């Protein structure tokens, strides 16, 4: 069932589990995410980055693909069609194309411009019953063209951003897009606790916090972050690595592939099976199964 992400993430925030936002890259990836969400009865955001929207053929193609698959696969759990790290124009186009949730990522702008543009997207989104995510501080690393220097979100900025009327807030707390360096010194959990309490007080409700860069963070830190207010965790790299490993293992263990299993629906299957395994493991850690 296609919905916006407001209720599923508010429920998660109040009951201290986290909703997965899994990035998709194509048809089979989208099917894998929907299949796992349905089997596990886990409300889920189907996340599509600006680069993936371009790769897959545009906002309308993506929105209609997800809606049609949701119907054809009889997915009986809430699924939000979510623009990940949207530009200002991208967020507007996504809302017009039928996305049910958008992130406006203005974290590279001066704060007052980020706030102003976010408020404009909030206004547009409210008219279309679309949920909105914004970002303060920045997520470290680089992914799909999104580069951040990992600035820890200042609490005063987070309060001002929460007051724009967004539904959930991405905050830089030491998290990084892509693979984590060996010398990474962990999430700033004390800062998360303080930021989460401050923004919830500011808006008089438990404000869901979003953890970007979910791939590669130790499970115990993710569980602690969920106890401290994280209610949405974004995962992309982990699924991409699983797909890549699944195909490589298949090729390595089937040396004489020449002229065999050349049908892409067979050849690529080990990759998509590996994705499903990875997504299930994330749902176990986030505790979002059977929450439909
Ligand atoms: O917006 C996408 C997520 O933050 C994905 O991060 O690839 O490190 O899991 P990740
Ligand atoms: Zn991200």
Describe the structure.
- By secondary structure, this protein is of the alpha/beta class.
- The chain has twelve helices and ten strands.
- The protein has helices at 6-15, 27-40, 50-56, 59-72, 88-97, 111-127, 155-162, 189-203, 219-227, 237-252, 264-267, 269-286; strands at 19-23, 44-49, 79-86, 101-104, 131-136, 141-143, 146-148, 168-171, 209-211, 230-235.
- An eight-stranded parallel beta barrel has the order 1-2-3-4-5-8-9-10, surrounded by ten helices. Strands 6-7 form a two-stranded antiparallel sheet.
- It is globular.
- The model has no long low-confidence stretch (mean pLDDT 97).
- It binds glyceraldehyde-3-phosphate and zinc ion.
- The site of glyceraldehyde-3-phosphate has 15 residues, from strand 3, strand 10 and helix 10.
- InterPro entries: Aldolase_TIM, Class_II_FBP_aldolase, FBA_II, Fruc_bis_ald_class-2.
């Amino acid at each position: 069932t296609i919905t916006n992400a407001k209720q599923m993430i508010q429920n998660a925030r109040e009951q201290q589990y986290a909703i997965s936002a899994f990035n998709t890259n194509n048809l089979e990836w989208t099917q894998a995410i929907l299949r796992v969400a349905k089997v596990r009865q886990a409300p889920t955001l189907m996340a599509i980055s600006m680069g993936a929207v371009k790769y897959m053929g545009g906002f309308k193609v993506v929105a209609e693909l997800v809606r049609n698959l949701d119907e054809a696969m009889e997915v009986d759990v809430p699924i939000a069609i979510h623009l990940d790290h949207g530009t200002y124009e991208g967020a507007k186009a996504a809302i017009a194309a039928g996305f049910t949730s958008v992130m406006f990522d203005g974290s590279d702008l001066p704060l007052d411009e980020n706030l102003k543009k976010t408020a404009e997207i909030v206004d547009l989104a409210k008219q279309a019953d679309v949920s909105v995510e914004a970002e303060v501080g920045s997520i470290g690393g680089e992914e799909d063209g999104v580069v951040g220097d990992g600035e820890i979100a200042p609490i005063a900025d987070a309060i001002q951003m929460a007051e724009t009327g967004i539904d959930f807030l991405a905050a830089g707390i030491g998290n990084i897009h892509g693979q984590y360096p060996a010398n990474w010194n962990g999430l700033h959990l004390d800062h998360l606790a303080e930021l989460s309490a401050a923004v919830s007080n500011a808006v008089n409700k438990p404000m869901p916090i979003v953890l970007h860069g979910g791939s590669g963070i130790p499970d115990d830190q993710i569980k602690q972050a969920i106890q401290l207010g994280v209610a949405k965790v974004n995962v992309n790299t982990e699924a991409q690595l699983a797909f890549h490993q699944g195909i490589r293992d298949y090729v390595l263990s089937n040396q004489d592939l020449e002229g065999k299993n050349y049908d892409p629906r067979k050849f690529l299957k080990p990759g998509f099976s590996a994705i499903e395994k990875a997504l299930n493991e994330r749902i176990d850690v986030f505790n979002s199964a059977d929450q439909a």
